[in-house]
Amino acid sequence: MTILVLDDDAALRGALSELLRLEGHRVLQADDGTRALALARVCHLDAVLLDPETVLHGRRCLARLRADPALSGIALVVMSAAEPDAPDAVFLAKPFTFDGVLAALGHATGRSAGPPGDHGTA
Question: How much is the pTM?
Answer without folding.
Answer: 0.86
